[in-house]
Amino acid sequence: MSFDSAYGVGALLTGAVAQTFSLSLPATFGVLAALTAAVLPVAAALRLRPSHHR
Q1: What angle do CA 47, 49, 51 make, to 5 degrees?
Q2: Would you list the DSSP string of 1-54?
Q3: Rounded CA gap, 16 and 3, in Å?
Q4: Which of 5, 13, 30, 33 has its CA 20 to 30 A from that of 39?
Q5: What is the pLDDT of residues 19-49, one digit of tens each?
Q6: Is the overall model pTM greater than 0.70, yes or no?
C-alpha cells in the first residue's frame, strides 16, 4: 500500500509542477531530475554525519 501511495503522490506532484509552471511533461521530468541531483549530495552528507543520539 505504501508503494502505491508513493507512486500516486509522485504522479500528483509531477502534474502539479507541470501545471504550475506550464511545462511539458519531458521538461517537468528534467526539472525534477535536476532538483533531485541537487539534493542528493546534501542527503548523503546528512546520512554520513555521526549521530549524537545513543
Answers
A1: 100
A2: -HHHHHHHHHHHHHHHHHHHTT--HHHHHHHHHHHHHHHHHHHHHHHHSPP---
A3: 20
A4: 5
A5: 999 999 999 999 999 999 999 999 888 887 7
A6: no
